Amino acid sequence: LPLCLSLSVCRRRARARGSKMAPAGSMDFRRFMEALSLACAKAEPPIEPSIDTAAKHWTARKEQALLEQGAVLKVVNEEGRGDANAEEGDLVKFHYAVAFESKPSQVIASTREDGKPGVFVLGKKGSLGRLPRGMEIALQSMKEGERSSFTIKPSFGFGHPDCSWTLEGCGTEATLNMDLELVSITKGVCVQVVKEDSVVKETLKDGTGWENPRPPYKVVAEIKVGDRKEEPRPLHFTCGSSAIPELLEEAIGQMFQGEVARIYARECLGSSDLVPASTCPSEGPVALHTYEVSLLEVIQVRDVVGTQEVMKSRVKNGEGEFPIDCPIVDCAMKIRCVGKLKG
After folding, report:
1. Residues in CB range of 20: below 8 A, 6 or more apart
2. Model-level pTM?
């Protein structure tokens, strides 16, 4: 508006002086101002608050306030070793004994009878589900080998909304006494949840390379099922051929050549001609089926043109890095080709 007013004043003054001024149409000023007015008339998009971030912040503040009021109390019975504490995402193995605060001498559930510790992933739904929030906080305060006693209020026990693991006899409204011993910690970088509340993979030895087995790759692997005494033999199979149970293959699909991993499953993953059905060595709320897998070789098999008319199967690994050392257009190459009729 001030700009239009100034232009009108200039025109009147120019006419009064008898001077000439360029016609309005030559500079297309009117259309410019109309476009500018339309642009200014558009409503600015509202700034939406980040609800998820705000909710997480509020939940964390509320949790901290409850912890300061004594929602989880700790007494150290035996000191642990090292300086590292368990963190969210870590796989922890621990023994527990649970009792009601009102009846501290009456143990409701314990892992010490059969000696098999519980195996859980902190902050995630691992093979047995997610722990009560109070137990997660308790374990994150501990070091490997430590044994401590905790008193956990109901809102941080089995009544917590994130908890998906249950113990028979432990209600959601009672304050609990827990005796916890942290046996071992596997850092989160070596842990993958293959399927929530069902299957978890723990890397025992790192592999090499960059390829994960996937259909139609061929694989050579040793698979030890449960506590079977016989030594595993190398198994040869093609990914996607149903040669081994589906979830077991999915877990192996997250491994690299040379890697050794242990697979934990809530239930038996099934059986096949190559992999027998597993039997759980114990019963109870922390009973798991285990599979120890050594991935000996990953053989790349590719559908080169996407129609299965030209299939490539790697016979010998080459040198260099993929893809920067692969031949491209205009590269000079020397090749050796041997042809055979299939069948």
Report:
1. 14
2. 0.76
